[in-house]
Amino acid sequence: MGWGYQFKCEKCGTEYHAYMGQGYIAAYCVYCCRNCNYWVSEEPTKVKMCPKCRKRMHRANDEEARMLPCPKCGNAAKPEDAGYLRWD
Predict the structure, then answer these.
(1) Quick one: which of 36, 35, 43 has its CA closest to 71?
(2) Please, what is the end-to-end C-alpha distance for the chain in angstroms?
(3) What pTM was computed for the model?
(4) Could you say which residues of the chain have pLDDT below 50?
(5) Structurally, how many domains does the chain consist of?
(6) 18, 65 contact by CB (below 8 A)
(7) Per DSSP, what are the bridge partners of residue 21?
(8) Which of 5, 36, 46, 47 has its CA 20 to 30 A from that of 54?
(9) Using CA atoms, how far apart are residues 88 and 86, in angstroms rounded to an integer?
(10) pLDDT at 25
C-alpha cells in the first residue's frame, strides 16, 4: 500500500497532493529540484531532470515530502499542515 500527503495552501487555497510508495498496480515517488524548488510525484526513474531549469532532481525523503511548496504560488508548507493519506 502506498502513502502520501495532501495539502491546502494557506496563501492561495490551492489543494495539492504527493503520492509515495507502491500499490498493486503502480509505484510513485516524489522528485524535488534543489535549484528551483519544482517537484513532481510520479513513477520512479533512475535519473529525473527538472523540466523548468534542466538540473538533476533528487528523490525526496518522507520529511521533505511533508513540506512540499505550493505548485501554484510557491508558499512553503509546514509539516503539521500535511494530511496523511493511503492509496492502493
Answers:
(1) 36
(2) 5
(3) 0.83
(4) none
(5) 1
(6) yes
(7) 28
(8) 5
(9) 7
(10) 86
Whole-number pLDDT of residue 34: 93
**Cell reading at 88:** 492502493
Instruction: Please spell the DSSP secondary structure of 49-77, one letter per residue.
Output: B-TTT-PBPEE--HHHHTTPPPTTT-PPP
* Cell numbers placing 25: 498496480
Do 65 and 5 contact (CB within 8 A), yes or no? yes
The CA radius of gyration of the chain, in Å to the nearest whole number, is 13
Q: How far is the C-alpha of 27 from the C-alpha of 14, rounded, in Å?
A: 25
- 32: buried, middle or exposed (CB in 10 Å: 19+, 13-18, 0-12)? buried
Grid cell digits, residue 43 = 513513477
- For residue 80, the 8-state DSSP code is G
Cell output for 54: 534542466
Say how many residues make up the chain: 88
Give the span between the Cα atoms of 35 and 9, in whole angstroms.
22
